[in-house]
Amino acid sequence: KLDWSADHPWDTVIKAAMRKYPNPMNPCVVGVDVLERRVDGHGRLHSLRLRCTRSSVLILGTSRTLTYIKEHSVVDPVEKKMELCSSNITLTNLVSVNERLVYTPHPENPGKTVLTQEAIITVKGINLGSYLESLMANTISSNAKKGWAAIEWIIEHSESAVS
């Protein structure tokens, strides 16, 4: 579990998070498709997206270069909370990664946003499973840093495009 904080209001961070890809900080993401988007009876925006990444997973015994991740997000503008859950849909016979991100306003400073990130990694049928789980956890942590950098980049470029 990781906690991050950004020096921007929640609504600014959420707008950037929804436009996070593509970005120069994480070039392995080659595409994001919106499969479904709707607003429920409580005014929450539900999005189902498919993210395609280019990756090398030779350590898992495959040379697959494209992997797909399913993302479901719920943005609640009244509660000021965005929850994004993602899971891989390729290579699930080898590894499952289920990630949950929650964006909320900072409890003491509404001009800042807090991200809580959790990931559950399960490696299947490989003797070095615990090693690979640790390796993947480090990768997720590293990608989280890139994700915050990408959000900052998007906010900066959005503001410069407006001014």
TrEMBL record:
Give the matching Pfam families. PRELI
The UniProt entry, under InterPro entries, shows: PRELI/MSF1_dom (IPR006797), Slowmo/Ups (IPR037365)
Give me the Gene Ontology terms describing cellular component: mitochondrial intermembrane space
Q: Which residues cross the membrane?
A: none
Originating species: Spermophilus dauricus
UniProt protein name: PRELI/MSF1 domain-containing protein
Which residues does the UniProt record annotate as the domain PRELI/MSF1?
1-163
